[in-house]
Design brief:
heterodimer, A: about 250 residues, alpha/beta, Rossmann fold, 6-stranded mixed beta sheet, 4-stranded antiparallel beta sheet, 10 strands, B: about 250 residues, mainly alpha, 2 domains, about 80% helix
């Protein structure tokens, strides 16, 4: 439970008393929740409520004014920032492609041995719903939906422990959104912690194990049934089965 | 009519024609064009009188060059004022390369160590450094606003702030040097640069004018590159926050 010292040692993220102001406006006020590994946590709330800000506090692209974020019980403020961001991969709301091919995007920043591992790259692509023919396509020529999936694959090539996703379905059609939802559930099933900020409540209801609802800078934590009772879940069972290769 | 009076009247007529044309085209530039012309006239008249004095009193040359650096730094600093320490960045990026190059040119005897040779040379190099600092700095400030998504994408993939900013810096430096490279490539073919024209009008032989112009142009290449590199380095430091984060400019 938030505030319980023993509960702070959960495997995954423990957010405690996070506060952040932007100028006169307090965006986050005493936000606390857990986002354990092996589960999908949905951050929901209307646009502009602070979901993206909260996600960026989790990997310390933003430093909160007060409060702590623990990763596996260790204060993230004390962790080396670059390593933290590799462990907790953030896929931003705008899927930014770096210059070069999809292969170069996926291999960006990896050590040469890892970058040369073709299966690592194709496995990440498959998890994001793209086939290996995408590897040598120029990233600048991809559609918005393809960019979103390559950005997800790029985060996965780093073998993160946590995946932080900001509106991952914003540029995707319903079928691809369902595929991404199934992928995220499969990744969580395999032990990854997944935190998804979304205003797509049916998507959240379809994939989340727990929900963190932001309102007026505070967070309410509950199950999808408690907090998203009115939102009909996306029919994840209609989605194409994720391949064993993608789950590997 | 005397030649000096004709020159003044002709230049005033051209400035008025530019303002009138801008007015007719509703560009909203007439006032700026007239004010800029008036300001240039006053500044050049004052400088003409001052330089005559400086040429007679060598000690004043140092003060004159200091005023040049201060003015250039204020101008370039105002273009990147969104950054913390903008003025200090501009002073360093302009003064260090330009004054070092002047020092080298005087030390090796490329120009006589007199106010008459030093002040115009320093003026050209300081002006070039100012241009390079302004262009590089503005591109960096714009990149920190419009390109923040790419920078944060790189940070999120585990880059250090300096590495995440490096592509933006390279693009800013390349862009800032394009005008100088084009000017150098086209020297003598498309344009006759100011030093060449001034020396020829002053009575120097075309060969002498060409030699001096080449010296100035090639020195400018290094000065402007160094200014751009220094600007990029200092802006990178100013925009890097603790914890491998980057200062985002408001759009």
């Amino acid at each position: 439970m938030p505030g319980d010292a023993r509960a702070d040692h959960i495997e995954g993220l423990a957010v405690r008393g996070l506060r952040l102001a932007r100028g006169e406006r307090t965006v986050l006020h005493n936000v606390s929740f857990d986002a354990p590994k092996g589960a999908v946590t949905a951050l929901v709330g209307p646009s502009g409520i602070g979901k993206s800000t909260l996600l960026r506090c989790l990997n310390r692209l933003l430093v909160p004014d007060a409060g702590t974020v623990l990763l596996d019980g260790a204060d993230t403020a004390a962790l080396e920032p670059c390593l933290l961001r590799q462990r907790a991969g953030l896929v931003g709301q705008t899927p930014t492609m770096l210059p070069g091919s999809v292969r170069e995007n996926l291999a960006y920043g990896l050590d040469p041995a890892a970058a040369a591992e073709e299966p690592r790259l194709t496995r990440a692509l498959a998890a994001a719903g793209l086939d290996p023919t995408f590897l040598d396509r120029p990233a600048s020529e991809l559609s918005g939906g393809e960019r979103a999936r390559v950005a997800l694959a790029r985060a996965l090539t780093r073998d993160p422990e946590l995946l932080l996703l900001d509106e991952p379905t914003a540029a995707l059609d319903a079928a691809v959104s369902r595929h991404i939802g199934v992928t995220l559930q499969a990744l969580a099933h395999d032990g990854l912690g997944v935190v998804v900020a979304t205003h797509d409540l049916p998507f959240a209801a379809g994939i989340a194990n727990q929900v963190v609802a932001l309102s007026d800078g505070t967070a309410t934590v509950g199950s999808p049934a408690e907090l998203l009772g009115g939102a009909a879940p996306s029919p994840a069972h209609d989605a194409p089965e994720i391949s064993p290769e993608a789950r590997a | 009519m005397s030649q000096p009076l004709t020159q003044i009247l002709a230049s005033a007529a051209f400035a008025l024609a530019a303002a009138l044309l801008a007015y007719r085209q509703r560009l909203g530039l007439s006032r700026s064009l007239l004010l800029a012309s008036l300001r240039a006239a006053v500044q050049l008249a004052v400088v003409g009188a001052l330089i005559a004095l400086v040429f007679r009193v060598p000690g004043l040359a140092i003060a004159f060059v200091a005023v040049m650096v201060a003015t250039a730094s204020l101008t370039a600093g105002s273009r990147i004022r969104a950054l913390p320490g903008a003025r200090r960045i501009a002073v360093a990026a302009i003064a260090l390369p330009a004054l070092a190059a002047v020092g080298v040119l005087l030390a090796v005897g490329a120009f006589a160590a007199t106010p008459r040779a030093t002040i115009p040379t320093a003026g050209i190099l300081i002006g070039g450094a100012m241009l390079s600092t302004t262009l590089t700095g503005r591109r960096l400030v714009e990149g920190l606003a419009d390109g923040i998504d790419e920078i944060e994408a790189r940070l999120s993939l585990g880059d250090r702030a300096r590495d995440a900013l490096a592509p933006l810096c390279r693009r800013a430096i390349s862009g800032a040097l394009v005008p100088l490279i084009d000017q150098t490539r086209s020297a003598g073919l498309v344009t006759l640069p100011g030093t060449f024209v001034g020396l020829v009008l002053g009575g120097a032989s075309p060969a002498t004018a060409a030699r001096v112009q080449l010296t100035v142009l090639l020195t400018l290449l290094l000065v402007q590159l160094l200014s751009a590199l220094l600007t990029a380095e200092l802006v990178t430091r100013a925009a890097t926050l603790p914890g491998e984060r980057v200062l985002a400019m408001s759009r």
